[in-house]
Write a structure and sequence with these properties.
With about 130 residues, the chain is α+β, with helices and mostly antiparallel strands. It has one domain: Orthogonal Bundle (Transferase(Phosphotransferase), domain 1). The chain is about 20% helix and about 20% strand. The chain has 2 helices and 6 strands. The strands form 3 sheets. Strands 1-2 form a two-stranded antiparallel ribbon. The radius of gyration is 16 Å and the shape is globular. The two termini are about 20 Å apart. It holds the Pfam family Pkinase. It is found in: Cell membrane. It catalyses: L-seryl-[protein] + ATP = O-phospho-L-seryl-[protein] + ADP + H(+); L-threonyl-[protein] + ATP = O-phospho-L-threonyl-[protein] + ADP + H(+).
């Protein structure tokens, strides 16, 4: 399923490996790390993100959610939006990662999906 999702603000799946009961997903390298690393526990010699960069990251994250929730086929409901799951490329270009809690959206005549909470607390689509 992940290999079918293509958007400039979603981390690219490069490959996978399965060996017995072991599973490994290989994603593209994101050189700037996660947004979490730029917001919390900053080194004293490191400047915090300026507002223009923060807005660029927020818009990119919103665009990825718009794609997943309204344009992907099938629709994907992303359940775990948090700073640790927003990875940053060069020039702080954001990409959403960690689709472990994502669910397929309503398909056909179905009108809703389960709202059972799993994993960490984060964004939950309406």
């Amino acid at each position: 399923m992940l290999s079918l999702l293509h958007h400039s603000n979603l981390v690219n799946l490069i490959g996978y490996c399965t060996d017995g009961d072991q599973r490994l997903l290989v994603y593209e390298y994101m050189p700037m790390g996660s947004l979490e690393g730029h917001l919390f526990d900053l080194d004293p010699d490191k400047d915090p993100l300026d507002w223009n960069t923060r807005m660029k990251i927020a818009v990119g994250a919103a665009q990825s959610l718009e794609y997943l929730h309204f344009k992907a086929n099938p629709l994907i409901i992303y359940h775990d939006l948090k700073s640790a799951n927003i990875l940053l490329g060069n020039d702080f270009n954001p990409k959403l990662s960690d689709f472990g809690l994502a669910k397929l959206g309503p398909v056909g005549e179905k009108t809703h999906v389960s709202t059972r909470v799993m994993g960490t607390y984060g964004y939950r689509a309406p």
